[in-house]
Write a structure and sequence with these properties.
- The structure is a single chain.
- The strands form six sheets. The chain has a six-stranded mixed beta sheet with strand order 11-12-15-13-16-19, with helices on both faces.
- The protein has three domains: about 60 residues, no CATH class; about 90 residues; about 300 residues, Aminopeptidase, CATH 3.40.630.
- It is globular.
- Helix 7 crosses helix 9.
- With about 475 residues, it is of the alpha+beta class.
- About 30% of the residues lie in helices and about 20% in strands.
- The structure holds 2-acetamido-2-deoxy-beta-D-glucopyranose (NAG) (4 copies) and zinc ion.
- One 2-acetamido-2-deoxy-beta-D-glucopyranose binds next to loops.
- This is Peptide hydrolase.
- It comes from Heliocybe sulcata.
- One of its GO terms (biological process) is proteolysis.
- Keywords: Hydrolase, Metal-binding, Protease, Signal, Zinc.
- Belongs to the peptidase M28 family. M28B subfamily.
């Protein structure tokens, strides 16, 4: 995928996403551009388009004119209704959202504080297709990469790839392996002792470094194009390597901060690999340049780090290969994970399962600690395994489903890897500081005990799925 090449022109077909569109003789498999909030976007050639109309119940055909540069899908996020009322201006209707794209640089009242905001380098865009809560836009390459910074907080943007992507169903033997793990998911006092060793004070130190709240890191934003994201990448790599991992920076698109891929070797000669991930990039909204990302997704990032630090303290070794991955480019449409998942598919990686941790810290004051699992995207068997391990090792969590959708596990799921996400709430997003300059760790509702409870579940899943040993002295 070369972002600077532009989208070109052709015909798009948008239809309700359905995995059966990829089975059998369907020509659509080769022209898939993504699943956006249940809308499958395809770019079929004329012959395929003619055939598709014979088996599709409904669909919309959109001509993309020559000269179109990049295509970006924007959509409203699943948030509590009460949150929307708190956002003073912009963002109630698609028209208002689009107005944030065309307005000029200046100082605006964003509800919380007066802030100088950025504007897009160019306000030229074309509205190709839309509903009340989503739109497909064509706009310049430069604007396409930073549109996330100017739109309202409860809307997200996804850059369409410049070539077709795969949709590989998760193979039945991979699902079977997860079902076997579920059968093995029984209380183990050694695992309970290990996972409870995760340190909340250490998490506090880590999160305040990432948000800049500690005054030492100098981080103002971890947006994928910011200097803060580069500092964060280096710091994360150093911290993971302190725990015995070997880390690699993986660039995926020009200008973006890299994915940070950290690996622990297996003690057994096997290709089997277990992957836990989070995204370390952040974003603001309405053009604000501050994006501390304490919850989104500093919380998921420190959960990985808390697990790594405990691996080191306890001297744990794994029977399988283990990867802890901090992705970048999530906020522009899962771009870092899309590249890494494709790389893993290309080498036919033997991934037992992967779990993305995205937003673990917030619950509304008065609500119990929770664990949300994805209602739509992911492998139900992995979610079931996580749910059962939560009941065993973090019974304090209320487990349920969330409509908050689509983090980096989607990239892996679409490449046929068994995957799921862990989230902070058994319901829609309720964090009032979502994609906001106020997403700090020192505030009401930000709960590191909940992060620890969810990290325990991620860790227990890792220990079960990878297999492990402790040094002889602690046996
Ligand atoms: C998983 O948890 C559910 C709910 O507690 C339980 O009914 C089921 O037996 C568990 N599955 C396994 C394989 O233990
Ligand atoms: C974690 O384990 C280490 C070494 O076994 C121990 O010194 C430390 O007190 C434990 N910390 C917590 C928070 O349980
Ligand atoms: C690991 O297993 C592979 C495949 O079974 C084999 O080719 C390779 O020689 C083994 N490596 C070692 C170090 O035993
Ligand atoms: C993948 O790993 C599993 C263990 O989880 C192993 O049984 C299987 O042989 C491996 N598959 C390949 C293709 O190496
Ligand atoms: Zn996120």
């Amino acid at each position: 995928m070369v972002a600077t090449a532009g989208f070109g022109f052709g015909t798009l077909l948008i239809t309700a996403f359905d995995p059966t569109l990829f089975t059998g003789e369907s020509c659509l498999s080769d022209s898939f551009y993504g699943n956006f909030a249940g809308h499958g976007v395809f770019r079929p050639d004329q012959a395929c388009l003619d055939t598709a109309t014979s088996f599709l119940a409904s669909g919309t055909v959109i001509p993309v004119k020559e000269g179109a540069q990049e295509l970006v899908w924007i959509e409203e996020q699943s948030v509590e209704e009460s949150l929307k009322a708190g956002v003073a201006s912009f963002g109630d209707t698609l028209e208002e959202v689009l107005s944030t794209i065309t307005r000029t640089r200046g100082t605006y009242d964003l509800g919380r504080e007066q802030e100088q905001v950025l504007a897009l380098p160019t306000s030229d865009y074309e509205l190709l297709y839309h509903g009340d809560s989503f739109a497909l836009l064509s706009l310049s390459a430069e604007s396409a990469r930073v549109i996330d910074t100017v739109i309202p907080p409860f809307w997200k943007s996804i850059l369409l790839p410049n070539g077709p992507v795969s949709f590989v169903p998760v193979p039945s033997d991979a699902v079977q392996r997860v079902k076997e793990l579920l059968e093995e998911a029984k209380f183990d006092p050694t695992v309970a002792s290990i996972v409870s060793n995760i340190s909340v004070p250490q998490m506090k130190n880590d999160i305040t470094w990432l948000t800049g709240e500690d005054g030492n890191s100098g981080i103002v934003s971890r947006h994928s194009f910011s200097s803060g994201s580069r500092s964060a990448a280096q710091w994360l790599s150093d911290r993971f390597e302190d725990t015995g991992a070997t880390c690699e920076f993986k660039d995926f698109l020009p200008g973006f901060a890299p994915n940070v891929v950290c690996r622990y070797p297996s003690t057994v000669n096997t290709t089997a690999t277990v992957l836990l991930s989070a995204h370390y990039d952040s974003r603001g909204s309405f053009g604000s340049t501050r994006a501390p990302g304490g919850d989104d997704d500093g919380s998921g990032t420190i959960s990985l780090l808390s697990i790594a630090r405990t691996i080191k303290r306890k001297g744990i070794t794994f029977k399988s290969n283990v990867e802890l991955v901090a992705f970048a480019g999530e906020e522009q449409g899962l771009l870092g994970s899309r590249a890494y998942a494709r790389e893993m598919r290309d080498k036919d990686a033997n991934l037992t399962l992967m779990i993305q941790a995205d937003m673990l810290a917030y619950h509304a004051p008065g609500e119990p600690a929770q664990l949300g699992l994805p209602a739509s995207i992911g492998t139900p068997e992995v979610a079931q395994l996580v749910s059962n391990l939560s009941a065993i090792y973090s019974p304090e969590l209320q487990v349920g489903f969330t409509s908050a959708c689509c983090s980096d596990h989607q990239s892996f799921h679409e490449q046929g890897f068994a995957s799921t996400q862990v989230f902070e709430r058994a319901g829609p997003i309720a964090d009032p500081m979502y994609h906001n300059s106020g997403d700090l760790s020192e505030r009401e509702g930000y709960d590191l005990e909940q992060v620890k409870s969810i990290a325990k579940v991620q860790f227990a899943t890792l220990l079960l799925a990878a297999g492990f040993d402790l040094p002889d002295s602690s046996a």
